[in-house]
Design a protein that fits this description.
Length: about 400
């Protein structure tokens, strides 16, 4: 028989399956918790062993191993093309909203009856979003009669998609007639380039043969301040302007510490609208070229022809590419197309603005200047973002209220 003091710390806990069977637990045992009982029926003479840490590590390693095996299985299935995860690509809807494109489209404008010409690398119009494009194509490189994109990373197809895509993506002015002059090609070094004489011939085709209302130039060359002549591209642009065509051109992508302080050719021409690039936060893209207050002759530029004139969305813009795919692009090239497309919507709304003379171009640019949203309220013009961010509906309203081109 145990003495009473020997059992003073012992607790008797009935087993739930049979209350006649009890387990004895010494409450003085380290780790004892109230209600503790054995893992098996009856009295457990020794503490239930705690699962050792090494055993837990083995379990974790086993789980990780299973996870890796599953990854390898899915990778093998994907490589064998037995499983396709058709996820829709992202859209750059913010760019269309911020620039006022969707506001103009909500008024019923789509670019119908307006002719826009691009000088670029060509176009792959087999893309589902471009199949219904009203297209006139001219190949200035090889003379091909079939639409084709000859560039690196489908530059022309991407620019065309921003303007006229009508499918998964909806462009700025999908109902314009698009003239695509293929005058640039892959330079073999990861970029696109073209001979000035070829580009100038393409620009001439745009206004002389295609009869463009707008020429959109997502290209740019270096502005040589020591040049004795303006060059064939600049001369071709001046002829287009003189023959009643609006010209929109990229400011260039040499921004940052190495910027030469001049927007690219031919956006440096006085009547041309030079375009810088903005990101989704409304900030100037770091690569957007800086403009000079002086023109090529060393004379002061005056409103509304300060360079650049305007900024538009141009960072991480998703658009059409080769083989039905979608790529993302950044640069003043993209921003240029937004301005060209918005102007096409405005020309649809105000057809009297077509075939402008020099004064009408100035009036339209003055309205652009007055309707822009400054990125800094203390400045009327900035060498990086121009007069501000574009707002399509405000531009149209300013044209109407100012009586431009009357």
């Amino acid at each position: 028989m145990w003495e009473e003091n020997e059992l003073s710390n012992v607790e008797f806990i009935p087993e739930p399956s049979d209350y006649r069977i009890v387990s004895a637990a010494d409450s003085a045992t380290v780790g004892h918790q109230e209600g503790w009982r054995g893992e098996v029926l009856g009295w457990a003479p020794t503490p239930v062993p705690v699962i050792s840490r090494p055993r837990r590590n083995k379990q974790r390693i086993a789980n990780v191993g299973i996870f890796l095996i599953l990854i390898l299985v899915f990778w093998a299935i994907w490589r064998s093309q037995l499983l396709f995860l058709e996820l829709p690509p992202p859209k750059s809807e913010w760019a269309f909203e911020d620039s006022g494109v969707r506001d103009l489209q909500s008024l019923g404008y789509s670019g119908d009856g307006v002719r826009v010409c691009m000088v670029d690398t060509g176009i792959d119009n087999t893309h589902p979003d471009l199949e219904n494009t009203k297209l006139e194509f001219k190949d200035f490189i090889s003379g091909s009669t079939e639409p084709k994109d000859k560039g690196n990373l489908a530059h022309g197809t991407m620019m065309a998609g921003i303007l006229v895509s009508d499918g998964y993506l909806k462009g700025v002015s999908p109902d314009v007639v698009l003239g695509m002059a293929a005058a640039l090609g892959d330079d073999g070094e990861g970029g696109n380039s073209g001979d000035q004489n070829v580009v100038s011939s393409a620009i001439e085709w745009c206004w002389k043969t295609f009869d463009a209302d707008i020429i959109s130039l997502s290209l740019g060359g270096e502005s040589d301040p020591n040049a004795t002549s303006e060059g064939p591209t600049t001369n071709a642009v001046r002829l287009a302007l003189a023959n009643g065509v609006y010209v929109i051109a990229a400011a260039g992508n040499d921004g940052g510490s190495g910027d030469d302080g001049r927007v690219a050719t031919p956006s440096n021409v006085k009547e041309v609208i030079s375009v810088g690039a903005l990101d989704e936060d409304g900030e100037v893209w770091e690569g957007s070229s800086i403009g000079s207050n002086l023109d090529g002759n060393g004379e002061q530029r005056l409103n509304p022809h300060m360079k650049p004139e305007i900024s538009a969305p141009g960072v991480s813009i998703v658009s059409t590419a080769f083989d039905g795919e979608y790529y993302s692009s950044t640069g003043t090239s993209d921003a240029t197309v937004f301005v060209s497309g918005i102007l096409a919507l405005i020309l649809e709304a105000q057809p009297e603005l077509k075939n402008p003379d020099s004064q009408c171009i100035t009036d339209v640019k003055t309205a652009l200047m007055n309707s822009a949203s400054p990125l800094d309220e203390s400045k009327s013009h900035d060498s990086r973002w121009g007069y501000g961010a574009i707002n399509g509906e405000s531009w149209l309203n300013e044209i109407r209220s100012s009586g431009a081109c009357l």
